[in-house]
Amino acid sequence: MNNYTLKERLESLGIKFALNLVKENPEKNLPKLMSIIDKLDGNDEILTTRTAIWSVLDNPDSVWYQFIMSIWQDIDDDVRCKLFENFVINTGVIGYNRQLKAQKEHGCNIPWAMLIDPTSACNLDCTGCWAAEYGNKLNMTYEELDSIIRQGKELGTYTYLYSGGEPLVRKNDLIRLCEEHSDCMFAAFTNGTLIDEAFADEILRVKNFIPAISVEGFEAETDARRGKGTYQKVLRAMKILKERRLPFGASCCYTSQNTNIIGSDEYIDSLIDNGCKFAWLFTYMPVGVGAPTDLIATAEQREFMYKQIRKFRETKQLFTMDFWNDAEYIHGCAAGGRFYLHINANGDYEPCAFIHYSDSNIREKTVLEALKSPLFMAYRNNQPFNDNHLRPCPLLDNNGKLAEMVHESGAHSTDLCSPESVDDLCAKCAKVSQNWAVTADRLWSECKSCK
Q: Which residues of 75-99 are buried (b: 16+ CB within 10 A; e: fewer)?
């Protein structure tokens, strides 16, 4: 089933041996796992990551050490081993080496992960969400989804994320893909309302699927955007997953209306108490004709999140990632296939989930051909979009850069209901971009670690 080279198989066997050691005694045997990884990383390709992990293992009083130990306490043994196998072996070693080889051979970006919309259908109608316009019109077939994953694995991509629409509308197909590609890691950005006991049991069975549940704050904030009763359904979903010792997290969009809540100690503590192991943080983007612009977070609010998340990393047992404010750690924008790409429910290859422009479709081009397309190459050739990595985005942080690439590549709007001019979209973000530039440049100059 796995098309691995002999070298990849030997590396896999070495890490699998270590994984068996850490199954029962992580405090004693995690260092053995890291020692094997050190040997496999002979060219120091992941030296920074290895150094960071060793610093945690050498400090048992740290919050990160306690977080790692909680993975053994709170997660089902077999699920945890499958996650480590797919992340460490397939994504971290085999996949990474394949990606590097493919980048050199083809001269284009090769993504660490792909974000795919199996459907545009959704059972909610959230304020500011472009998917609400499409209804259930757009769907990719199982065969198309399977083909994308097979192509991705050839390039070294072993991590697949689902969004939509509500991806769990297609829960049977998603589980089937987990079974077919047991060497891959799957996750879904989901509103959580379709997670029930039966589906949680299926997740426990396949072991390679992680829900990231969208939640906008506490009950008032979540229900205000997603509909009355949604928050209680989210809590029920988390309870079901926690009872089965399944890993899951939260996906939080901070806006002008809820940033003070999303960035509060009380809210982060509530996520931990409810069983979340991670929180993905996004800032609101006014994508789509008529999308409200008054929900865009202010420069002051974005700075607040920047500082709060860094504080939480020293004090909270929760893995957090802010997809704008953390760009300094990957030296700029992750999109355009540099770390990930997006494929919408119509099959259009898009550089980012928030950038609805494309010059390629799955029914006309392979994944590799799309990565070599004018739009994706424009991303590659222009990244990073700013030397200040706190200004990573070609839309929100560098006004006009997205329009330049779209016009240069001949890409078109993928919004089937109300196509949006890229110039109009950029105009909506111009003032916000100018304001954030002042704040971001100050923060960048203050950040000694960024220099």
A: beeebbbbbbbbbbbbbbbbbbbbb
| pLDDT given for residue 132 in this prediction | 52
Q: What is the pLDDT of residues 366-418, one digit of tens each?
A: 999 999 999 999 999 999 999 999 999 999 999 999 999 999 999 999 998 78
Is there a contact between 57 and 30 (Cβ–Cβ < 8 Å)?
yes
Q: 185 and 158 in contact (C-beta within 8 Å)?
A: yes
All structural domains of the chain with their residue ranges: 6-104, 108-451
| Structure confidence at residue 18 as a pLDDT band (50, 70, 90) | confident
* Residue whose tokens read 């977080």: 67
Cα–Cα dist 329/96, whole Å: 18
Q: What would the two tokens of residue 33 be?
A: 């796992």
Provide mean pLDDT across the span 37-47: 77
Looking at residue 10, what is its pLDDT?
Answer: 64
* 353 Cβ neighbours under 8 A, 6+ residues apart: 115, 163, 342
Buried b (16+ CB within 10 A) or exposed e, 34-67: bebbeebbeeeebeeeeeebeebbeeeeebbbeb
Q: How far is CA 79 from CA 85, 239, 292, in A?
A: 10, 17, 41
- For residue 350, give the H/E element and its range: strand 349-350
Average pLDDT of span 282-296: 92
The string over 308-341, giving b where at least 16 C-beta atoms fall within 10 Å of a residue's C-beta and e elsewhere, is: bbeebeeebbbbbebbbbbbbeeebbbbbbbebb
**C-alpha to C-alpha distances, 132 to 160, 164, 165, 264, 294, nearest whole angstrom:** 23, 10, 7, 29, 19
Distances, alpha carbon 218 to alpha carbons 34, 252, 257, 259, 284, in Å: 39, 11, 12, 12, 17
pLDDT at 347 over 90: yes
341 vs 35, 264, 354, CA distance in Å? 33, 31, 11
108-451 sits in which CATH class? alpha beta
- Is-cis flag, bond preceding 92, omega within 30? no
Q: Using CA atoms, how far apart are residues 276 and 204, in angstroms rounded to an integer?
A: 16
